[in-house]
Automatic annotation (TrEMBL):
InterPro entries: Immunoregulatory_rcpt-like (IPR051694), WSC_carb-bd (IPR002889)
Transmembrane segments: 184-206
Protein name: WSC domain-containing protein
Signal peptide boundaries: 1-20
Sequence segments annotated as region (Disordered): 227-246
Keywords from the named record: Membrane, Signal, Transmembrane, Transmembrane helix
Keyword RNA-binding recorded: no
Length: 278
């Protein structure tokens, strides 16, 4: 009888211990942030924004491994996040650094492993999937999925409880400087192209005008040659010849000196028949 009573008491204490252990196990506890591990999903904190992350699916058995590894890592995404216990997001950058909040806000139990938290209502548990360890950027405050990747400077942030998170902050000044430099470079290139086009057009116009002048001069020379050659295409040669009037008497044209006085009112260039009374 005593043995049975002792056995009953032992069983009762064991059941009470199991029940107490069950009641003390907390559900939906956010895992502490830690350094990324290659090809392993590691929690990077609780965020109040999803940033550039894109909703992938709702999982009936969601967990850190399901969302961070099976889904997002398989897609080649560096970042994963869970919210409301079952929803999985994937992307290439963490949410904005300014949206990191205390872990207590991520308190929704994962549907596949209730002891871990998978975000909360309006909060996301963010994971590094292990594809890219320390080069993952944080999204800008006003960034969208189409925003370009900017230069980032790694640093560390310590949360409550001594948790350390590796942070990559984006420099807005470097973005603006890069944008201004690109605009100036583009303007300079356009200016050089315009000047080169103007110079080329001017050279073309001058050359065309010169060719036209040469053609005009050639036409005039050809017309003059045709006029003098009578259509034969050759200019007449004047060396050794003189142009004389065919009306002149050949004999008289060869006379150089007169035999006597010559009357001014007489024309001696032609033979004149004189009639006399004999």
């Amino acid at each position: 009888m005593k043995f049975a009573t002792s056995l009953g008491l032992t069983v009762g204490f064991a059941a009470s211990a199991v029940s107490a252990a069950a009641t003390t196990t907390k559900m939906g506890v956010e895992q502490p942030s830690s350094a990324p591990i290659y090809m392993q999903p590691v929690v990077q904190g609780c965020f109040s924004s999803s940033g550039d992350l894109v909703f992938n699916s709702t999982q009936a058995f969601n967990s850190r491994g399901e969302c961070g590894q099976t889904i997002c890592q398989a897609m080649g995404k560096a970042v994963a996040a869970s919210t409301e216990g079952s929803k999985c997001y994937c992307g290439d950058s963490y949410p904005p650094n300014s949206t990191i909040v205390e872990d207590k806000y991520c308190n929704a139990p994962c549907t596949g492993f209730g002891q871990d938290a998978c975000g909360g209502t309006g909060y996301w548990t963010v994971y590094n999937t292990g594809i890219e360890l320390y080069g993952v950027p944080y999204a800008n405050e006003s960034s969208t999925s189409s925003s370009t990747t900017s230069t980032a400077t790694p640093s560390t942030t310590t949360l409550s409880g001594g948790q350390t998170v590796f942070v990559t902050q984006t420099s807005a000044a470097s973005k603006k400087s890069s944008s201004n430099t690109a605009s100036i470079a583009a303007g300079a290139v356009v200016g050089v192209v315009v000047v080169a086009a103007a110079i080329g057009a001017g050279f073309f116009i001058i050359r065309r005008r010169r060719n036209r002048q040469i053609e005009e001069e050639h036409r005039r020379n050809a017309a003059v040659n045709a006029f003098f050659s009578g259509g034969s295409g050759k200019a007449p040669s004047t060396s050794g010849h003189s142009i004389s009037d065919s009306r002149l008497d050949p004999v008289m044209s060869q006379r150089r000196m007169s035999d006597g006085s010559i009357a001014d009112n007489e024309d001696y260039s032609r033979r004149i028949l004189r009639v006399t009374n004999a």
